[in-house]
Amino acid sequence: MTKPRLIVTRKLPDAVEDRLKAHFAVALNPSDQPFSQERLVAAMQQGDAILPTVSDRIDAQVIEAAGRRRCRIISNFGVGVSNIDLRAAEFAGLPVTNTPGVLTDATADIAILLMLSVTRRAWEMESMLRAGKWTGFAPAMNLGSGLQGKVLGIIGMGRIGQAVAERAYFGFGMKIVYVNRSARDLPQLPTATALGTVDELMELSDVVSLHAPGGGENSHLIGEAQLKLMKPGAFLINTARGDLIDERALTNALVERRIAGAGLDVFAEEPRVPAVLRRLNNVALLPHLGSATLETRTAMGMKAADNLIAFFDGKSPPDLVG
C-alpha cells in the first residue's frame, strides 16, 4: 500500500521525524530553512499533507495559488493557527489541526521567567555585569520590583492563562484578575476575579500577561488607548501572539517610560524585532521560546503525527480546528 506523501516545512525533533517516516512517504527539511511562499505553494501541490509551523504563512493566496492541489490536510505544529487563513482553508475543503494541551507548562514557565526578568531588571543587570561595569554591592542601587502581593491581569484564561495564574498565585501570592470570552469555573483559584473589559483589567493590574489567540478581532488588542490606562509602574508580558500588541504604540510607551517595562517572547513580524526595542533596557526579549523544551516540542510533533495518522486512517483527527 502506497504511503501518503507528507511534506514537513521545518526540522523537527528526531523522535517525531522517525515516527513520521514510519507512516508516511515524508519529505523532511534537514537544513531547517524556512519555506518561501513559492515553496509552500509547491508543497500544497506535491504532498497529500503538509506539516507547517506557526511561522509558515499559509494564506488565501497560497491556498488559491496551489491550483490543482494535492494536499488534503494541514497539520499545524503549534496551538495557534493565526498563520493559516482558516476561512480560505474551509472554502477549499482543507481540514486544519493543531497541537493543544502539551505546551501549557513550558509556555507558562516562560511567562513567569519574563515577569521576573523585567521586574527584577535581570537582563539589564546581567548586561552591565558582562560589560564589566558592575562596581559591587550597593544597598540602594539596581533595585527592581517584587511580584509578591501585586495584581496580575490575565487576558485569555485558557490552559496557559490558568497555568500562569496558578504559578503567580501560589508562588508569589499575586492577586489574580482576568478577562475571558466565556465564563470560567476556577476552583484552583478561588480568589480570581473575572472582569468585564480589557480596559478595566489594564487599569487595575501591576502586571498584564497576554494569553489570547491572535489574529482577527484580537489584532492590536493592546493599543495606544489600552497602554495609556496602565499604571506607570506596570509591566506587560506577551507569550501568546505578536499581533496582539500594537508594537509601535508599546515601543513609544517604553521609550517614554509611561509604563515600567515589558517582557516579550513573540513579535509582530518574526523574526524581525524593531531595533528600538532591542536597544531598550526596560524590556526583556526572548526569541519565541514559549514551547522550546525538547519534551514539549517532541510532544507537539507527536500530536501533529496523531492528527495525520487518524486522518489517513479514515478517522476524525483529534485536534481538528473549527
From TrEMBL:
Domain D-isomer specific 2-hydroxyacid dehydrogenase NAD-binding: 113-290
GO CC aspect terms: cytosol
InterPro entries xref list: D-isomer_2-hydroxyacid_DH, D-isomer_2_OHA_DH_cat_dom, D-isomer_DH_CS, D-isomer_DH_NAD-bd, NAD(P)-bd_dom_sf
Pfam families: 2-Hacid_dh, 2-Hacid_dh_C
Location of the D-isomer specific 2-hydroxyacid dehydrogenase catalytic domain: 8-321
A GO molecular-function descriptor: NAD binding
Listed name of the protein: D-glycerate dehydrogenase
Biological source species: Oceanomicrobium pacificus
Keywords noted in UniProt: NAD, Oxidoreductase
Source domain of life: Bacteria
Family, as annotated: Belongs to the D-isomer specific 2-hydroxyacid dehydrogenase family.
